[in-house]
Amino acid sequence: MANQQYDDDELAPFQTTSYKPGEKKSIQKYQTLNTNDNLSQGSGPSDDSHCVVISQIALEVAGCSDIILDLSIPEALQTIKDKPFMIKKGMEYRMKVLFKIQHDVVSSLKYLQVVKRCGIQVDKTKEMIGSYGPASEPYEKKFMIEEAPTGMLAHSHYEVKSKFVDDDNVMHIEWNWSFDIKKDWE
User: Fold this and answer.
1) Which tens digits make up the pLDDT trace of 92-114?
2) H-type helices in the chain, by residue range?
């Protein structure tokens, strides 16, 4: 399996034209604005500077058990790069992500993805996840349902580059992974 080349502009963050981000405020500023809210609850360990911690990515496929990638395991991102997901042609599927926000408010978290087959871009996803404050419990985001392509030409190996970014252009995680579309489950 060859490593695909991805241009930086393929996964460039995007701005929603009607959205006007407000002034960036620290968690301390929010606490002083409204003392009834406890935004620091679940703010995370002091030795972990990450604001967004992606704990799990799952692929929900209709009629099958979820394919789950546990990102608390350090080698998980390498495993997903080397071992492709398998999706049956014509099946409905969607991605689901579990994540925690800690230390600060994250504005306009987005998921960006580029899918290539034989080095040619065949799909690009830009999905707004939203703005979140620190919390002790993880957030869950289910993406839109998609249908795997059908037909003989769809049977192939696909390579993907994904990342999570926010309005401040902070990249929280980036990884490569792959999937195969097959005629039947193997």
Assistant:
1) 989 999 999 998 899 999 999 99
2) 27-33, 76-82
Spell out the alpha helix ranges (H) of 51-167.
76-82
The three-state secondary structure class of 90 is coil
Nearest to 90 by CA among 145, 144, 150, 146: 150
For the record, the structure tokens of 167 come out as 């309005």
Q: What HEC string does 33-81 produce?
A: HCCCCCCCCCCCCCCCCCCEEEEEEEEEECCCCCEEEECCCCCHHHHHH
Please calculate the CA angle 115-170-27 and round it to the nearest 5 degrees.
Answer: 140
Burial of 57 (0-12, 13-18, 19+ CB in 10 A): buried
Burial class (CB in 10 A: 0-12, 13-18, 19+), 148: middle
State residue 45 phi and psi, 5-degree precision.
-70, 145
CATH 3.40.50.80 fits 48-182, yes or no: no
Would you say how long the chain is, in residues?
186
Question: What distances in angstroms separate CA 61 from CA 90, 91, 185, one per listed residue?
Answer: 11, 7, 12
Q: How confident is the model at residue 40 (pLDDT cuts 50, 70, 90)?
A: very low
Nearest Cα to Cα of residue 123 among 168, 172, 87: 87
Of 166, 109, 103, 111, the closest CA to residue 136 belongs to 103
